Amino acid sequence: MVLALAAPLPTSLAFAQPADVGEGEAAYKTHMQNGVKLYQEKNWQGAIAEFEAAYKAKPKASPLVNIALSYKSLFDYPRAIRVLEDALGKHADSLTAGDKKAAEDAITEMKALLGYVTLELSPPSATVTVDGNELPKDAAQKPIPLGPGTHRIGARADGYGPREESITVASGEKDRKLSLKLLPDKGYVTIRAVDPKTAIAVDQKGVGYGAWAGFLSPGTHLVQMYTPGSSSSYSIQVVVAAGRSQEVKEGLGGTVTTGPGIARPGDDGHWVGAQRCLPVTFP
């Protein structure tokens, strides 16, 4: 890569003209100096953290160029390319014509090293990771660029068990395919009460009022409902199966308890009454 590491502000600036150096400028200079030092020591991750802090203090092209160089040193060409493209797209006015040409040439050079993997993803909404780093939500909708070598590609989604596979790609590959089909490990349950003020608890834990929906692990779960001022409470045992959706409506099946000893969420955060006295925390 022809692109050169962008140097920090000269140390003399901070001391010769302290009145002209604001808090952001001083932080920028410090983080850039620390980043360059860490880069020279080949502490690429530490350098990235410092250059990102410098960019936050003073958004301009130089920290982004250095971040890209650090990712390139980690052989993470896709992220190095994205950062350089950000530098060109957002801060072209702070780059010289030579710097722009060097950045464009570096992008072209790194793109030539990439291979591409097409994912067969199920469910399509699953979150994808590459080497532990989360990709944007729509990343799997098009071939994923990877640098040459072996990579860990994973997927996760609510209600499914995670999965991860290793794949080795070479530069120029464009027809590699990888299937990541997740298996359900939870069931989806919707609970509806008649009154929107009704407190709902699942397994003695308050989950909301009026209605609740979410994933539960397979097995039997206790659903309880209580409306303030009512003389009765409702409870039902719900059997949940992985990959299955079901709805629980107050009054359909289950048990209704009446009288002064009914179960209800108490003022001290406990579910109290004749049935049992167990901790319940309501939002």
Can you give a write-up of this model?
With 283 residues, the chain is an alpha+beta fold. The chain has three domains: 11-111, Alpha Horseshoe (Serine Threonine Protein Phosphatase 5, Tetratricopeptide repeat), CATH 1.25.40; 115-181, Immunoglobulin-like (Sandwich), CATH 2.60.40; 187-279, Immunoglobulin-like (Sandwich), CATH 2.60.40. It has six helices and 18 strands. It has helices at residues 11-16, 23-40, 44-57, 61-73, 77-90, 97-111, and strands at 115-122, 127-130, 133-134, 144-146, 149-156, 163-169, 176-181, 187-192, 199-202, 205-209, 211-216, 219-226, 232-240, 245-249, 255-258, 264-265, 270-272, 278-279. It has a five-stranded antiparallel beta sheet with strand order 10-9-12-13-15, with no helix packed on it. Strands 3-2-5-6 form a four-stranded antiparallel beta sheet, with no helix packed on it. A hairpin with a 2-residue loop joins strand 2 and strand 3. Helix 3 (44-57) runs antiparallel to helix 4 (61-73) and helix 4 (61-73) runs antiparallel to helix 5. The longest helix has 18 residues, at 23-40. The chain is elongated and about 80 Å long. The relative contact order is 0.08.
Secondary-structure map:
Layout: H1 11-16, H2 23-40, H3 44-57, H4 61-73, H5 77-90, H6 97-111, E1 115-122, E2 127-130, E3 133-134, E4 144-146, E5 149-156, E6 163-169, E7 176-181, E8 187-192, E9 199-202, E10 205-209, E11 211-216, E12 219-226, E13 232-240, E14 245-249, E15 255-258, E16 264-265, E17 270-272, E18 278-279
Helix pairs in contact: 2-3, 3-4, 4-5, 5-6
